[in-house]
Design goal:
The protein has about 180 residues and is mostly beta strands. It is built from 1 helix and 9 strands; from the N terminus they run H-E-E-E-E-E-E-E-E-E.
Length: about 180
């Protein structure tokens, strides 16, 4: 938990420092850099209002932007996996690293619609190791320094342990595109 809070605090400080500079767009200075920070919340079995399991995480996405629309990135995520019914322990802290791609459709009035695919796997041995894949649609602002966005999507979680089942989780993300 302390690792996740440390990463969250460092990324928020970097976001505030980057957005404090007076410039219209950061893409003029570093046209090929792609960097976003996200807070992810996903869950399963919400129709009972008591989720069976879920993932709460903070993700940093450094990457490369090919043009104004296409980018690839390496998502590094600190996750807290919530498990209410599967074990006696209620949560597991885990770190994942993967590969992702995004397509951003820039509309007028500085609005953007984005489509992203991401795959990531755990990188530290823990009580729960898994692979997760995410497909999401995001809506936000583009062309300014620290551009906020929200996205919704679906996450597929495949635990490596045979005792646990694969899960499809509904996901909501709040993020900031710095570059």
């Amino acid at each position: 938990m302390k690792r996740i809070l440390t990463i969250l605090a460092a990324s928020l400080v970097a976001t505030v420092c980057m957005s404090a500079q007076e410039t219209k767009t950061y893409r003029d200075y570093v046209p090929h850099l792609h960097f976003t920070t996200e807070i992810n919340m996903s869950g399963y079995d919400y129709y009972k209002l008591k989720p069976d399991s879920g993932i709460f995480g903070f993700t940093v996405n450094p990457g490369y932007r090919f043009n104004a629309n296409w980018a690839v990135y390496v998502p590094v995520s600190g996750d807290i996996v919530l498990m209410n019914k599967t074990t006696t322990r209620n949560y597991v802290e885990q770190t994942t690293v993967g590969l992702g791609a995004t397509y951003q459709l820039n509309m007028k009035d500085h609005m953007a619609l984005g489509f992203s695919l991401t795959g990531a796997s755990t990188c530290i041995r823990s009580d729960l190791n898994y692979f997760k894949a995410k497909a999401a649609v995001s809506f936000g602002i583009h062309g300014i320094g620290c551009a906020p966005y929200v996205s919704i999507g679906c996450t597929y979680m495949n635990p490596y342990q045979s005792a646990m089942m694969d899960k499809f989780l509904f996901e909501c993300t709040i993020g900031f595109a710095i570059f």
